[in-house]
Amino acid sequence: MADAKPQYRVPFVERTGMQRLEERRGYSRLLMPLEPNANHVQVMYLGAFTVLAEAAAAGPGISILDTAKYFPIIKDIAVDCHRMAASDVAAEFSLSEEAMESLLADLERKGSAGYAAEVPMHDADGTLVATGRVTVKLLSHDWQGATSQTAGEAA
Protein backbone atom coordinates (compact mmCIF):
# COMPACT_ATOMS: atom_id res chain seq x y z
CA MET A 1 0.00 0.00 0.00
CA ALA A 2 1.29 3.44 -0.87
CA ASP A 3 0.61 5.27 2.39
CA ALA A 4 2.74 4.84 5.51
CA LYS A 5 -0.09 3.92 7.88
CA PRO A 6 0.92 1.53 10.65
CA GLN A 7 -0.18 -2.05 10.05
CA TYR A 8 -1.87 -4.04 12.77
CA ARG A 9 0.30 -7.02 13.68
CA VAL A 10 -1.03 -10.17 15.28
CA PRO A 11 1.73 -12.75 15.86
CA PHE A 12 -0.82 -15.59 15.85
CA VAL A 13 -1.94 -14.59 12.35
CA GLU A 14 1.66 -14.23 11.17
CA ARG A 15 2.37 -17.83 12.20
CA THR A 16 -0.28 -19.05 9.72
CA GLY A 17 1.78 -17.77 6.79
CA MET A 18 -1.23 -15.89 5.42
CA GLN A 19 -0.29 -13.76 2.42
CA ARG A 20 -1.71 -10.43 1.32
CA LEU A 21 -2.24 -10.81 -2.43
CA GLU A 22 -3.84 -7.41 -3.02
CA GLU A 23 -4.92 -4.63 -0.71
CA ARG A 24 -6.14 -1.18 -1.60
CA ARG A 25 -8.70 1.30 -0.34
CA GLY A 26 -11.81 -0.72 0.46
CA TYR A 27 -10.48 -4.04 -0.88
CA SER A 28 -8.57 -7.04 0.43
CA ARG A 29 -7.58 -10.33 -1.25
CA LEU A 30 -5.67 -12.79 0.92
CA LEU A 31 -4.29 -16.32 0.67
CA MET A 32 -4.08 -18.90 3.45
CA PRO A 33 -1.51 -21.60 2.59
CA LEU A 34 -2.43 -25.19 3.32
CA GLU A 35 0.93 -25.67 5.06
CA PRO A 36 1.32 -25.05 8.01
CA ASN A 37 -2.48 -25.00 8.39
CA ALA A 38 -3.39 -28.59 7.53
CA ASN A 39 -5.17 -30.67 10.14
CA HIS A 40 -4.66 -34.36 10.95
CA VAL A 41 -6.24 -35.46 7.63
CA GLN A 42 -4.25 -32.95 5.53
CA VAL A 43 -7.08 -30.51 4.78
CA MET A 44 -7.38 -26.90 5.92
CA TYR A 45 -7.91 -26.57 9.67
CA LEU A 46 -11.14 -24.71 10.52
CA GLY A 47 -9.24 -22.15 12.59
CA ALA A 48 -7.30 -21.12 9.47
CA PHE A 49 -10.58 -20.37 7.65
CA THR A 50 -11.61 -18.23 10.62
CA VAL A 51 -8.37 -16.22 10.60
CA LEU A 52 -8.64 -15.77 6.82
CA ALA A 53 -12.26 -14.55 7.00
CA GLU A 54 -11.43 -12.15 9.84
CA ALA A 55 -8.45 -10.61 8.06
CA ALA A 56 -10.21 -10.33 4.68
CA ALA A 57 -13.24 -8.68 6.30
CA ALA A 58 -11.25 -6.23 8.43
CA GLY A 59 -8.79 -5.11 5.75
CA PRO A 60 -11.16 -2.88 3.76
CA GLY A 61 -12.31 -1.10 6.91
CA ILE A 62 -8.77 -0.61 8.17
CA SER A 63 -7.80 0.82 4.78
CA ILE A 64 -10.00 3.89 5.33
CA LEU A 65 -9.04 4.57 8.96
CA ASP A 66 -6.91 7.33 10.35
CA THR A 67 -5.23 4.91 12.76
CA ALA A 68 -4.17 7.75 15.05
CA LYS A 69 -7.89 8.30 15.75
CA TYR A 70 -9.60 4.94 15.13
CA PHE A 71 -9.09 1.19 15.49
CA PRO A 72 -10.89 -1.96 14.27
CA ILE A 73 -12.21 -4.84 16.32
CA ILE A 74 -14.10 -7.99 15.38
CA LYS A 75 -17.44 -8.20 17.14
CA ASP A 76 -18.63 -11.53 15.78
CA ILE A 77 -17.56 -14.24 13.36
CA ALA A 78 -19.00 -17.47 11.98
CA VAL A 79 -17.61 -19.76 9.31
CA ASP A 80 -19.67 -22.22 7.30
CA CYS A 81 -17.57 -24.98 5.75
CA HIS A 82 -19.00 -26.27 2.48
CA ARG A 83 -16.21 -28.63 1.38
CA MET A 84 -12.84 -29.77 2.62
CA ALA A 85 -9.92 -27.82 1.15
CA ALA A 86 -6.76 -29.78 0.34
CA SER A 87 -5.00 -26.73 -1.13
CA ASP A 88 -4.29 -23.09 -0.39
CA VAL A 89 -7.45 -21.01 0.09
CA ALA A 90 -8.09 -17.44 -1.10
CA ALA A 91 -10.61 -14.92 0.23
CA GLU A 92 -11.60 -11.44 -0.81
CA PHE A 93 -13.92 -8.73 0.42
CA SER A 94 -14.64 -5.17 -0.61
CA LEU A 95 -16.61 -2.19 0.62
CA SER A 96 -18.37 0.11 -1.83
CA GLU A 97 -17.43 3.78 -1.94
CA GLU A 98 -20.89 4.57 -0.53
CA ALA A 99 -20.37 2.16 2.38
CA MET A 100 -16.94 3.64 3.15
CA GLU A 101 -18.34 7.18 3.17
CA SER A 102 -21.15 6.10 5.49
CA LEU A 103 -18.69 4.40 7.87
CA LEU A 104 -16.48 7.49 8.00
CA ALA A 105 -19.50 9.74 8.64
CA ASP A 106 -20.63 7.49 11.52
CA LEU A 107 -17.12 7.51 12.98
CA GLU A 108 -16.99 11.31 12.91
CA ARG A 109 -20.52 11.69 14.29
CA LYS A 110 -20.61 9.08 17.06
CA GLY A 111 -17.13 7.57 17.38
CA SER A 112 -18.18 4.13 16.20
CA ALA A 113 -19.29 2.41 13.02
CA GLY A 114 -19.70 -1.13 11.86
CA TYR A 115 -20.38 -3.39 8.95
CA ALA A 116 -21.23 -7.00 8.22
CA ALA A 117 -18.98 -8.83 5.78
CA GLU A 118 -19.76 -12.02 3.91
CA VAL A 119 -16.43 -13.51 2.84
CA PRO A 120 -16.38 -16.34 0.28
CA MET A 121 -13.31 -18.58 0.42
CA HIS A 122 -12.17 -20.62 -2.59
CA ASP A 123 -9.62 -23.40 -3.00
CA ALA A 124 -6.93 -23.49 -5.69
CA ASP A 125 -9.45 -24.90 -8.21
CA GLY A 126 -11.87 -22.02 -7.58
CA THR A 127 -14.35 -24.15 -5.64
CA LEU A 128 -16.24 -22.40 -2.84
CA VAL A 129 -15.05 -24.22 0.29
CA ALA A 130 -16.23 -21.90 3.07
CA THR A 131 -18.08 -18.67 3.76
CA GLY A 132 -17.24 -16.35 6.63
CA ARG A 133 -19.73 -13.94 8.18
CA VAL A 134 -17.90 -11.26 10.12
CA THR A 135 -19.13 -8.22 12.03
CA VAL A 136 -16.44 -5.54 12.07
CA LYS A 137 -16.55 -2.54 14.41
CA LEU A 138 -14.53 0.61 13.86
CA LEU A 139 -14.06 2.66 17.02
CA SER A 140 -12.54 5.95 18.08
CA HIS A 141 -9.67 5.75 20.55
CA ASP A 142 -11.83 8.17 22.59
CA TRP A 143 -14.98 6.05 22.28
CA GLN A 144 -16.73 5.78 25.64
CA GLY A 145 -19.44 3.30 24.61
CA ALA A 146 -17.89 0.44 26.54
CA THR A 147 -18.42 2.25 29.84
CA SER A 148 -21.79 3.84 29.08
CA GLN A 149 -23.55 1.00 27.25
CA THR A 150 -23.88 -2.73 27.54
CA ALA A 151 -22.17 -4.80 24.87
CA GLY A 152 -25.50 -5.47 23.16
CA GLU A 153 -26.35 -1.78 22.94
CA ALA A 154 -22.93 -0.90 21.49
CA ALA A 155 -23.90 -2.54 18.21
Automatic annotation (TrEMBL):
InterPro entries: DUF4442, HotDog_dom_sf. Pfam families: DUF4442. It comes from the Bacteria. This is Thioesterase. It comes from Erythrobacter litoralis (strain HTCC2594).
